[in-house]
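debug: dumping io for the single-chain case to check the tokenizer round-trip. Nothing else runs in this session.
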Amino acid sequence: MTWGPRAWLAGMVLLGTLDTTAAESKRVLVLHSFGRDFKPWSEYSRSIRSELQRQSPWQLDIIDHSLMSARSSNEEPEGPFVAYLRALFANRPPELIVSVGAPAAAFFQRHRSQLFPYTPMVLTAVDERRVQFSALSANDAVVAVRIDYLRAIENIVQVLPNTKNVMVVVGTSPIEQFWREEIGNAVKPLSDRVSFTWTNNLSFDGLLKHATALPPHSAIFWELMIVDAEGVVHEGNTALARLHAVSSAPIFSYDESFFGREIVGGPLLAVLDSSQQTAKVAVRILGGEKAGDIKIPPVTFSTPKFDWREMQRWGISESRLPPGSEVHFREPTVWERYRWQLTAVLAGLLLQAAMIMALLVERYGRQKAEREARVRMLEVMHLNRSAAVGAMSASFAHELSQPLSTVAINAETALQLSEKGPQEGSKLKEALSDIQQANQHALDIMRHMRRLLRRRSEVPVQEFDLNEVIADVLGILSPEAHKRNVSLTTSRPEHRLPVRADPVHLQQVVLNLAINGMDAMAHTDVDARRMTIETTLEGDWITVSVSDSGTGIPEGQLSKIFEPFYTTKPEGTGLGLSIARDIIERYGGKIWAEHRTGGGTIFMFSLPLARPA
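debug: decoded output
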């Protein structure tokens, strides 16, 4: 394949773009001793990564690799791994190397001349006894820890003073064998009072079997279990969790990464202490400081911490803990959990007798006040209806004048026809029929007025058809709408809409909403005055809407118009809409208002059906 000039140019531009993008971040190689999921190093690496991202002012490109040869004493696979790393980073070496754990640190120190000899490195999550300080170069910085095994075992004896035997869990990998010897040497001062057993010659199943049958006054110290005697590798927290499930003795350790479920606790190496120090050193190196000039004292045990759940399980008294210890996962006592509730109950019991008497007196007063309030409310409703009828009195008078005039005209016609003799009998009968219809019309008008003006001492809740109430209201409103040049239309279902309420109260609600709408249209153009009263049924709810084309309600005042004594009209009392809300809510409904598209307002209220329509 041959490349033309344009292809070469495009390739060079692409490589330049990639180089620019890569140059914007700093590359960090993190080498794990066993793998990313082996405790405790997995917890350290996660925390270090988080702290690096938090503390670094630059964008970081963090690349993880794991050293597989640390699981055995065979170093032959390291050659190909070295070659792999050199090839992987041939074009762009890392700006910093972070080794997590002693095997990773030892690997880099063995192959420093072959692997990035001038790249600075931070050795972390490693005990100071595992660092070859004499082999460190000017490009190496160490954030070491110091594990005090004697203090860790003394903690067991302090919290469990009857301890006679300690089983130390340790595997067969090279690093575990190293710590087997170190722990044995560290605890020699306790050999006269505590005997130690070791698990490096056991398979993990054999270890579990042994842990289930430990003698009384025993404890377990968890060092590591990476490779057991049968060569089985144990990742993550599975091995410790299985041991905890069958153990006949409490489990202790020295590292915080194991804390939180299986171990009792004690003085521990805090993961965050090491990771913060590591990230701080890494940022200083990436910022230009010489790695060899950065000296950090080893991280030691932090404040002792204990798991309250394990203390309860093994009967460990809090008084036996070292001074200043922190107790985690403590379950609150009944008093701590329900302090306020118990206080309230006790206070209630002490005041119960006095409260009963006070409640009886208050109940009598409340019932009396409710009766009086109900009477006053009915009076206010009656006055509101009377005010509405009074406001429409001119319309009623005009409406009554029509049937009364018809009665007078037809009575005079009938009288004249009666004088002409029997030959005008049919016309006389027609005139008398007109008189009867006009009289019925006048009676209907008076009936509507009398119903609205009737004083009610109580609320007669009954079932009725809401359509009939709307029809009565239209009969009352028609003359007023004609007087004000308002086009009044209605829309409602043909079937019955049964509700349970006082029909006069619902008439009052619709009448109030309609009169408010007509008042709002007083200053609009005559041809634009339109009002619609619509009834709809949705499920088991009936909604009545009264819409007008008036000036509308100012923004921000829709939520206030149903409050008592709040009005937007100079001559208003502010009671009509408040009474309407009380009436609708009394019968289990709700009422609200919305802005109408194109101008005006829509008032709506909903009531539940008394039964399916």
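debug: round-trip ok. The domain at 459-613 is CATH 3.30.565.10 (Heat Shock Protein 90).
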